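User: Hi! I'm working on a homework problem where we have to compare a predicted structure to a textbook description. Could you give me the structure for the chain below?
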Amino acid sequence: MISVQLYHDQYAKMNRDKSLQHFFPKNSAVMECKMTESEFDEFLKQNDMITIRHHLKTYQDGLICGEFEVI
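Assistant: Happy to help. Predicted structure tokens:
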């Protein structure tokens, strides 16, 4: 399982599609979701993101929009 945490300001800018439906507020600044490795791979593709160390970055503009960790 992979725990994905999106920063709330970046989450608000993203398109509301099925890849975001399982996220819930962890606190006022972070939305969190736990997913399998295959779901994580699909999430990255759908939202045009890449991973750098433990960060999630948008591919086109390089903004850090969240973090992930394997649990």
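For your comparison, note the following. Residues 37-46 form the longest helix (10 residues). The mean pLDDT is 87. Good luck with the assignment!
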